[in-house]
Amino acid sequence: MTQEIDEPQDEPKSRGGLLMLAAVALIAVPVLIGLLVIKSDSPSTRAPIGSENDMGGGMGDATATTSPITGVGAFSEIQATDITIEPDPAGDGAVLRVDTTIDVACAVTYGPTQALGSIATDTDMVGGGHSVHQPLMRDLTPGVTYWYRVSGVAGDGTLYQSDLMQFTYNGEAVAAVEPPAPNVAVGASATAVSSEFSAAFAAANAVDGSTSSEWSSAGDGDDAFIEIDLGEVHSVAGVGFRTRSMTDGTAITTSFTVTVDGETYGPFAAGPGLSVALVEFEGRVIRFDVATSTGGNTGAIEVEVYGAVLTSDDDM
Question: Which of 79, 133, 182, 232 could anchor a disulfide with 106, C-beta 3.0 to 4.6 Å?
Answer without folding.
Answer: 133
